[in-house]
Amino acid sequence: MELIRILSIDGGGIRGVIPATILVTLEKLIQKYSGRSDARIGEYFDFIAGTSTGGILTALYLCPDKKNPKRAKMSAEEIAKFYIEDGENIFHKSIKHTVASAFGLFGSKYGCKNLEDKCKELVGDIKLSEILKPCLITSYDINNNSTIFFNKADAFADKEKDFYLRDVIRATSAAPAYFEPAYIKSISGTYYTMIDGGVFANNPSMCAYVEATKLRYNLNADKMIVLSIGTGSYNKNFRINKNSGLINWAFPLFYMNMSGVSDSVDYQLRTIYESVDKNYYYLRVDKDLREYPRSIFEIDNTSKRNIRLLQEAGSKAAYESLHELDNFAKLLVYKDFSLIKEKSS
After folding, report:
1. How many Cβ atoms sit within 10 Å of the Cβ of residue 294?
2. Which of 3, 148, 151, 161 fits a disulfide with 139 by CB distance 3.0 to 4.6 angstroms?
């Protein structure tokens, strides 16, 4: 039985360093079992989903090399390097923008030019319809109050739903208050105003599961494997009392929204896979960040110290789940659980 292989990556701003680091480890395991030193993440999943920073990662893993359109342009290591080296430039506050926005009170906290320039540099004029594999990248259309799921299948079939990949990245990462909404147009010329998909699906794993069922008739849990990667959880108690106001609730509410949605989706998928006795077909890898200062959870903290802490957290998460990631790499390469023992012996 050949399995459909799904990767899902949470939102979380610069905390995308965590999944990017975890996936470097996974790519090395894939290279080990495939016998290909040049094997890449985007070539060993059949479907990748991402929200916000996870949407950026999804686009980069699936972006084809113009010289060889059947091959991924970037390795997991190159993508992690981009996050580590360019994160500070993306979340950059120019004096002009800071003054114009009254320090973020009357405008976005950051200008979007650096992000847009980097996106164009990385993916060029590649269209959504041209990426390597099926995908799901989330965003929200604020003009029509509707969820948007960017995916290759729709883009390939209808120019109205096809976009430049750089615009998809801009749309999924337009976090309210941090970046201004993305004003983008489809290949057919229709304009949209988009914000970060994290407002409704910070963990897009369930969205990916449902979307993947459209790939093949009668596809269900015993024919799909899902790897869900988080951007860190923060399980500390919040000191909230009955007299707390907006300032006291701001960070806890932000966290509860992101964490609560992710935990609910994780619970739902675990339940689905337990019901068909295929627990090992679903793997959630995340890192509890309680051992770190609370500042590590800030989605725009791009100080060198914080980047180092995020790298460390990602490396620890990969190490703590190394046995599970190793087994998952075998599933990705061999596509059949019954062959794993034979192939690895």
Report:
1. 12
2. 148
Q: Is 196 a catalytic residue?
A: yes
Q: How far is CA 209 from CA 8, 124, 324, in A?
A: 9, 29, 20
- Clarify whether 38 is annotated catalytic: no
| Catalytic hit among 196, 205, 262, 266 | 196
Bigger pLDDT: 248 or 290? Answer: 290
- Domains of the chain and CATH, by start: 4-340 (3.40.1090.10)
Name the token pair of 49: 């989903």
Instruction: Write down the pLDDT at residue 341.
Output: 53
d(CA 109, CA 287): 27
- Most distant CA atoms of the chain, gap in Å: 64
Cα(159)–Cα(182) distance, rounded to whole angstroms?
Answer: 19
Given the residues 8, 10, 46, 52, the one annotated as active site: 52
Model pLDDT for residues 69-123, shown as the tens digit of each residue: 889 999 999 999 999 998 888 765 544 434 344 444 445 678 888 888 888 999 9
DSSP labels, 125-154: T-BGGGSSS-EEEEEEETTTTEEEEE-HHH
Sign of torsion, CA 331 337 342 345?
A: positive
Residue matched to tokens 């993916």: 123
pLDDT in tens, 124-151: 999 999 999 999 999 999 999 999 999 9
Distances in Å between the Cα of 240 and the Cα atoms of 236, 263, 293 are 12, 21, 19
Cβ within 8 Å of residue 187, ≥6 positions away: 127, 129, 159, 160, 162, 163, 164
| β-bridge mates for residue 288, sequence order | 233
**Amino acid identity of 83?**
Y
With 0-12 / 13-18 / 19 or more C-beta atoms within 10 angstroms meaning exposed / middle / buried, residue 68 is exposed
Distance (Å, whole) CA 233 – CA 299:
12
